[in-house]
Amino acid sequence: MTNLLWSDRDALVSSWPFMATPYPLLTTIVIYLWIVLKAGPKYMSKRKPFNITTIIRIYNILQVIACIYFVVTAHQHEFTFALMWQCVNVPQKNDVIPNHLMALNNMLWLFLMLRIIEFFETIFFVMRKKFDQVTALHCYHHISTVVLLWIFLKYSGGMNEVFIGTLNSIVHIVMYIYYFLSSFRNYRFRFISNLIKPCITVIQIVQLVAILGHCVVAMMADCNVTWMYALQILNISFLIIMFVNFYVKSYWKRNKSV
């Protein structure tokens, strides 16, 4: 791939599916909410839960493979966690974009597609009639992730975003391996699962705190497009509050009541 100017990069990114305008993504989100909040529950109200265990297992394995691929590829293209507390400025319109950064833009687009595919997780809940798992936290987390990813890829697409994607992928590798193993009805693992589930939530909270710190540093260092980091700080802060509240209600208070 040859070196590109930022204007060329913008034209290339806009040619990718979902990236020319926000309308395809917004339409997808509206359809997603309509299915999981209205059409899906209505359709399933008088039906038995679907047995889709095999589909879910395959889905989890594919997610693990995709996340591993993202992490490995990011490191192959000069990403390092040493960038965690640094600001890596995005090239300006008259700057040449290095080959490795353009390759990472491709990876960020694939990461966005992977997060959109995660909408199926909520649909799986509906198909299995696990309506209690279609929570405000669950839906907001999925939607805010793809919206912020779209904004960053469209207007930034630098190493700062790759850090978020790489850290998130590492956490998802752990999560989806756990989800895969928990799909087997093994009573011994079910006991271990009760110990692991709170840890998964803690890992997610730690991840959010790390991303929050990363965005605060980027904003204080006056990185390009600071308004996006301000938006992400608000989003991550809200998610931290929601995840902590979920942890307290699901594990802390439950353990105290036992």
TrEMBL record:
GO MF annotation terms: fatty acid elongase activity
Transmembrane regions listed in the UniProt entry: 20-37, 58-75, 107-127, 139-156, 162-181, 227-248
Protein EC: 2.3.1.199
Membrane topology: Multi-pass membrane protein
Substrates-to-products reaction catalysed: a very-long-chain acyl-CoA + malonyl-CoA + H(+) = a very-long-chain 3-oxoacyl-CoA + CO2 + CoA
Protein origin, superkingdom: Eukaryota
Signal peptide (from-to): none
Enzyme class: transferase
Localization (cell): Membrane
InterPro entries linked: ELO_fam
Gene Ontology terms describing biological process: fatty acid elongation, monounsaturated fatty acid; fatty acid elongation, polyunsaturated fatty acid; fatty acid elongation, saturated fatty acid; sphingolipid biosynthetic process; very long-chain fatty acid biosynthetic process
Cellular component annotations (GO), alphabetically ordered: endoplasmic reticulum membrane
Family of the protein in this entry: Belongs to the ELO family.
Alphabetized PANTHER family for the sequence: ELONGATION OF VERY LONG CHAIN FATTY ACIDS PROTEIN (PTHR11157:SF164), FATTY ACID ACYL TRANSFERASE-RELATED (PTHR11157)
Protein name per Swiss-Prot or TrEMBL: Elongation of very long chain fatty acids protein
Record organism: Polypedilum vanderplanki (Sleeping chironomid midge)
